[in-house]
Amino acid sequence: MELEKKKAAEEAVKWVKNGMVLGLGTGSTVEFMIQALAKLVAKGLQVVGVPSSERTKELAGNLGIPLTTLDEAGILDLNIDGADEFDSNFRLIKGGGGALLREKIIAFNSKVNLIIADSTKQVEKLGKFKLPIEVIPFAKKGVLMKLEHMNLHPVLRLQSGKPFTTDENNLVIDVDIFAIEDVEALNHTLMEIPGVVETGLFLNLADVILMGKDSKVLVFENNSVQTSFRVHTKNT
Ligand SMILES: O=C[C@H](O)[C@H](O)[C@H](O)COP(=O)(O)O
User: Which of 43, 121, 185, 234 holds its CA 20 to 30 A away from the CA of 92?
Assistant: First the structure.
């Protein structure tokens, strides 16, 4: 899968034009993209990036990619990010690395959202991957009880035996949504629970998905919301 991630990432940087303000996602696929982007910057490409996590900020900064903040940048030209799952309606689950909140803010503030993924991320039905929900610590118990009541089998995410905390100092609760048919309605319900800051359901945000498949990259373009894929195959 590493080769597929790298292929998709290398294809993604071909979308970058001189002078662009870029959203830089988070995750192992994005790390390949940042490495490829850094090589172009070293050769003279002029871009500035808004990192979606402290992890991305450190990597991109260390590799010499000029960075700024979302406040400074305003609307971004192009956001390149990974995904934990995507379906044929361009709906994503994100947040496996806990960066969902800043990632969604960046995606919402970008003109074009380009998703890069290996072929294991493509699913017929969302939910084999547990859906991350970012929660304010004060609300933990109440949110857990509500999610349990909704039959979503919530699990507080841990790291080294302690609650995992996000870059915004919140908690992550992972839930099982595989049995859910209407993810839009679910997202609405989840967002109405006090203390829930954001969910990892990215609906109506992805414009293009570049999926590594063996040594090729498949391009899925979302021309209108909720349509099926137009697929082109590119040899890379
Ligand atoms: O919080 C993490 C992000 O949403 C990632 O984009 C997602 O988890 C995919 O990561 P990876 O490219 O490592 O599979």
Answer: 234
What was the ipTM of the complex prediction? 0.98
Which residue ranges form the domains of the chain, and what is each CATH number?
2-122+203-223 (3.40.50.1360), 131-197 (3.30.70.260)
pLDDT digits (tens, 9 = 90+) for 33-58: 999 999 999 999 999 999 999 999 99
- CA geometry: angle at 234 spanning 228 and 235, to 5°? 150
**pLDDT digit string, tens, across residues 117-138:** 999 999 999 999 999 999 999 9
- 3-class state of residue 109 by DSSP: coil
Residue stretches of the annotated binding site for substrate? 26-29, 81-84, 94-97, 121
Rounded to the nearest whole angstrom, what is the distance from the C-alpha of residue 25 to the centroid of ligand 1? 8
